[in-house]
Amino acid sequence: MKLPHIHIIATGGTIAAHETSAMQTTGYRGDNLLLANELIRSIEGIEAHAEITAENIFSLPSSAMDEAHLLQLARRVNELLADPAVDGLVITHGTDTLEETAFFLYLTAKSPKPVVITGSMLPASAHSADGPGNLINAICTAASRESWGKGVIVCMCNRLLSARDAAKTSTYRLDTFKCLEYGTLGHVVGGDVRFYYAPVRPHGSQSQFDIQALAELPRVEIIMTHENCSEVLLKAAVESGCDGVVAAGMGSGAIPPRMRAYYKALEKKPFLVRASRVYSGYVAAHSATPDLEYDTICAGDFTPIKARLLLQLALTVTSDLDEIRSIFQKY
């Protein structure tokens, strides 16, 4: 029987980091990264599960990922997915911004074929490095017919998570990636891929967003709120000409008094999304900042960093406030 063809795209990150000492698990350099083929050589026996090809699209810590990298990666993903010879993709990525890249691809990868993104919390040279196991599980997941139509999947620590909901929850734990509200889609154990749930919100070919011809994305900033919060950061964002702002509001997205008064008084204003600095839950209507009075947008269950990406993509298709509100409810 012909094995599925899985293509690996390496982007750098801790999974590719290599140091001279196996004891060094922090403070490792970002300029000594293994290439894709070197990662594959660390998982002997995987050829029994899939026919594997690989490439390095770039090699950098994920904290250095910018808009140009994101668009380049998304375009390459769509190019490969359109190839009938490719059955699925695995992307290796640093964990610092893995959830952002995964969510962006969840909204822009135009195929039901599996796209699985993985990384590691320990460098490749560390004792008991988690990267090889995560990569094996990611390849098995991408090779499984059960993974088709599930959207972009985050595969870490044996868990299969929807990119819509996955979040990094710890700076050091190996099981850092979780879906705090909705749980996992499934798991991988001993190469056996099992799903128990599937995403129901639009993704992949159901998404209305097309990045193929985009040279850049609208600029959206995130502002963290706090007690005695002033309008200074919001004013700086507005005066810099940004297209939108996501406020990590208090509780259910409450915007502090000085910030909301400044925004309300603006004649020309960037779009303002009310998200929450609380890491799980749902931002609903709020009496302190009524959306219809302040022309704000409710983030729903999106974290600030995912609300930012969704607003960026929404602004590529519309500048109508009600349509953007509808997009946030839809996705």
Can you tag this structure with a few keywords?
single chain; Rossmann fold; alpha/beta; 26% helix; four-stranded parallel sheet; eight-stranded mixed sheet; 2 domains; 331 residues; 18% strand
Structure characterization notes:
The protein has 331 residues and is of the alpha/beta class. It has two domains: 5-206, L-asparaginase, N-terminal domain (Rossmann fold); 220-330, Rossmann fold (3-Layer(aba) Sandwich). Helix content is 26%, strand content 18%. The chain contains nine helices and 14 strands. Strands 2-1-3-4-5-6-9-10 form an eight-stranded mixed sheet, with helices on both faces. Helix 3 runs parallel beside helix 8. The two termini are 38 Å apart.
